[in-house]
Amino acid sequence: MNDPSEQRHEAPAILPSIRGRCPKCDAPLTADELHAMTTVCPGCKTELQIFLKANWAYTVASLTIGVVVAYLRGHESIVLGIWALFYGMVVLLLIKVYRWELHLPIKIVEVPNCSFWPTTKP
User: How many Å apart are CA 12 and CA 1, to the nearest integer?
Assistant: First the structure.
């Protein structure tokens, strides 16, 4: 059994990547759990919201890229501004769509209770 041809190699188990933690119970949240439309903590069943950190920086960067692309394509004056907004919004949309694949930093918060009065009867 010491012969290298006789040794068996098993594939390593694929562990789910932990992408964040629940702010209420500190349970680990995987990327698959955060991709769901309504994110719920598997431990305490709290509804969660996911935000991009430094969202303003992505907006400024995408609009700057939009201005550069519009200028390089030869647009001038007000047309430059219109096309810069268009290209910038396309880049910002791509950032928002591919935020999980780009592993951008996220902030996980609990969904606030926005009711004006209690929904349970005493």
Answer: 21
Dist CA 113 CA 107 (whole Å): 18
Among 47, 58, 53, 5, residue whose Cα is nearest residue 25: 47
Residue 17 gets which letter from DSSP?
P
What's the pLDDT tens digit per position in 36-76?
667 788 788 888 888 888 889 999 999 999 999 999 999 98
DSSP 23: T
Closest CA to 49 of 59, 60, 61, 34: 34
> Is this structure's pTM higher than 0.70?
no
DSSP 117: S
Rounded to an integer, what distance in angstroms lies between the CA atom of residue 69 and that of residue 72? 5
Is the Cα dihedral 114, 116, 121, 122 positive or negative?
positive
Q: What is the largest CA-CA distance in the chain?
A: 77
51 bridge partner residues: 107
